[in-house]
Design a protein that fits this description.
This protein is an alpha+beta fold and 155 residues long. It has two domains: 73 residues, FAD/NAD(P)-binding domain; 65 residues, FAD/NAD(P)-binding domain, CATH 3.50.50. A three-stranded antiparallel sheet has the order 3-4-5, with no helix packed on it. A two-stranded parallel ribbon has the order 1-2. A hairpin with a 5-residue loop joins strand 4 and strand 5. The longest helix is centred in the last third of the chain and has 24 residues. The radius of gyration is 22 Å and the shape is elongated. The chain binds flavin-adenine dinucleotide. Flavin-adenine dinucleotide (FAD) binds next to helix 3.
Length: 155
């Protein structure tokens, strides 16, 4: 939804092809998008084919999920935005994560294993930005340093 809103800076003719029968964005975002005259919707459908002339995109084929009906739609641009998955499979069954795969943190940047700290997109469902990742990276390094200092004092 955010990407579609951004694209209205460049065009007043956007069609969102959405696999579900309704939108799942927050209600504030939904209201904003549905009220935008530049954005149309095709629900319960997927893009099954993108066609071009060798240089540019010219059309897409949209397939309805329930009926299987195929519709051709003329377009000169396709933007694919189907969500983000955190790159945390490496930590599966080792570090606690939420149902989307984001690492769960407590007390700053500490993971479910003592002495293991996390920062950035792997633990950030909400912001996922370079600057916030750099900030939590700094926090994690401070937490790790403090942890090591405490650990060394117990030896
Ligand atoms: C298309 C796009 C546009 C974006 N635009 C912006 C923007 O304009 N402004 C903004 O602030 N943010 C933007 N972001 C988000 C920003 O890039 C991320 O939030 C930020 O890079 C996250 O930093 P990170 O250190 O958590 O992860 P990453 O930058 O993804 O770094 C993770 C590192 O870990 C490495 N790695 C992965 N697996 C392993 C492994 N098994 N072993 C060792 N290393 C591994 C990867 O190679 C990578 O170098 C954009 C992201 C995308 C995808």
């Amino acid at each position: 939804m955010e990407n579609a809103a951004f694209l209205t800076n460049f065009t007043n003719d956007i069609t969102i092809v959405h696999i579900l029968p309704t939108l799942t964005a927050s209600s504030a975002t939904k209201q904003k998008i549905l009220a935008n005259p530049s954005i149309k919707f095709i629900y319960e459908s997927t893009v099954s084919e993108i066609t071009g002339d060798g240089k540019h995109v010219t059309s897409i084929t949209v397939t309805h999920q329930k009926t299987g009906e195929k519709t051709s739609l003329t377009t000169d641009g396709v933007f694919i935005s189907i969500g983000l998955s955190p790159n945390t499979s490496l930590f599966r069954d080792q570090l606690e994560m939420d149902s989307y795969g984001y690492l769960l943190l407590k007390d700053g940047t500490e993971t479910s294993i003592k002495g293991v700290f996390a920062a950035g997109d792997v633990a950030d469902y909400r912001y996922r930005q370079a600057i916030t990742s750099a900030g939590t990276g700094c926090a994690a390094s401070l937490d790790a340093e403090r942890y090591l200092n405490r650990y060394l004092n117990t030896l």
